[in-house]
Amino acid sequence: MIELKTPDEIKAMRPAGKFVGDILKNLRESTHPGTNLLEIDDYVRRRIEERKGAVSCYVDYAPDFGTGPFAHYICASVNDAVLHGVPYDYTLKNGDLLSLDLAITVDGWVGDSAISFIVGEQKDPEDLRLIKTTVDALRAGISQAVPGNRLGDVSAAIGDVAHEQGYTVNLEFGGHGVGHIMHGDPHVANDGKAHHGYKLRSGLVIAIEPWFLRTTDEIVQDQRDGWTLRSADGSRGAHTEHTIAITDDGPIILTRRDEDDAAIPDNAR
């Protein structure tokens, strides 16, 4: 069921969004070659435990697309992994492409966001183009998230950016409604038909999350952990996400990361 939030409820969602955004910004600044994925997970655990009213959305989460309860505080996907990456004993190397996806509840409301970046100074231009495409697609999708538009306008805007850069789009996983739970209605596909689908209304809060792979749109589940989704051909992936509220005054980016954020269109605030 699709739920619309009141202005006061959107205001109440801001602390969760800010908390998630701040953690991701700090992780981007502090992650370097030599950082272990388990250190990242432990940092998030400590931040949650230190914050009154904060609860992980991931620990013990057991949807039908995973194998058993998730046992970590953040999704960390490296190189050919793009979604639902399980942190493990891996030390990041110069040039690794790291995607971090984080969802936390604060005082009963969820914030959900993701970033991708290159670890260290060795930056493959194709990796940078892939990451930039997810950022540009997110910006395009957010710009269409206004009352009166259709959900398909958001999806089509995302897909258009991907196709313009030569990427294909997987439709198995995408964005979603956000509120008291992490994954709610509606589903927000990363490609679609403009002027089709649910009519957007003020008060709708959704996570928009473009993710693309360099040379395929097919994914496989890592059988070792039962969660991590990897490209079927071993090519690298990137993922960028924000939780946004649709309002009469334009989209509100609840998980914005201030100066670290390049995915805010002109009509957002």
Automatic annotation (TrEMBL):
<dbReference type="GO" id="GO:0070006">
    <property type="term" value="F:metalloaminopeptidase activity"/>
</dbReference>
<feature type="binding site">
    <location>
        <position position="209"/>
    </location>
    <ligand>
        <name>a divalent metal cation 2</name>
    </ligand>
</feature>
<comment type="function">
    <text>Removes the N-terminal methionine from nascent proteins. The N-terminal methionine is often cleaved when the second residue in the primary sequence is small and uncharged (Met-Ala-, Cys, Gly, Pro, Ser, Thr, or Val). Requires deformylation of the N(alpha)-formylated initiator methionine before it can be hydrolyzed.</text>
</comment>
<dbReference type="GO" id="GO:0006508">
    <property type="term" value="P:proteolysis"/>
</dbReference>
<dbReference type="GO" id="GO:0005829">
    <property type="term" value="C:cytosol"/>
</dbReference>
<feature type="binding site">
    <location>
        <position position="241"/>
    </location>
    <ligand>
        <name>a divalent metal cation 1</name>
    </ligand>
</feature>
<dbReference type="InterPro" id="IPR000994">
    <property type="entry name" value="Pept_M24"/>
</dbReference>
<dbReference type="InterPro" id="IPR036005">
    <property type="entry name" value="Creatinase/aminopeptidase-like"/>
</dbReference>
<feature type="binding site">
    <location>
        <position position="176"/>
    </location>
    <ligand>
        <name>a divalent metal cation 2</name>
    </ligand>
</feature>
<comment type="subunit">
    <text>Monomer.</text>
</comment>
<protein>
    <recommendedName>
        <fullName>Methionine aminopeptidase</fullName>
        <ecNumber>3.4.11.18</ecNumber>
    </recommendedName>
</protein>
<feature type="binding site">
    <location>
        <position position="84"/>
    </location>
    <ligand>
        <name>substrate</name>
    </ligand>
</feature>
<feature type="binding site">
    <location>
        <position position="112"/>
    </location>
    <ligand>
        <name>a divalent metal cation 2</name>
    </ligand>
</feature>
<dbReference type="GO" id="GO:0046872">
    <property type="term" value="F:metal ion binding"/>
</dbReference>
<feature type="binding site">
    <location>
        <position position="101"/>
    </location>
    <ligand>
        <name>a divalent metal cation 1</name>
    </ligand>
</feature>
<feature type="domain" description="Peptidase M24">
    <location>
        <begin position="12"/>
        <end position="248"/>
    </location>
</feature>
<dbReference type="Pfam" id="PF00557">
    <property type="entry name" value="Peptidase_M24"/>
</dbReference>
<feature type="binding site">
    <location>
        <position position="112"/>
    </location>
    <ligand>
        <name>a divalent metal cation 1</name>
    </ligand>
</feature>
<dbReference type="InterPro" id="IPR002467">
    <property type="entry name" value="Pept_M24A_MAP1"/>
</dbReference>
<keyword id="KW-0031">Aminopeptidase</keyword>
<keyword id="KW-0378">Hydrolase</keyword>
<dbReference type="InterPro" id="IPR001714">
    <property type="entry name" value="Pept_M24_MAP"/>
</dbReference>
<keyword id="KW-0645">Protease</keyword>
<feature type="binding site">
    <location>
        <position position="183"/>
    </location>
    <ligand>
        <name>substrate</name>
    </ligand>
</feature>
<keyword id="KW-0479">Metal-binding</keyword>
<comment type="similarity">
    <text>Belongs to the peptidase M24A family. Methionine aminopeptidase type 1 subfamily.</text>
</comment>
<dbReference type="GO" id="GO:0004239">
    <property type="term" value="F:initiator methionyl aminopeptidase activity"/>
</dbReference>
<feature type="binding site">
    <location>
        <position position="241"/>
    </location>
    <ligand>
        <name>a divalent metal cation 2</name>
    </ligand>
</feature>
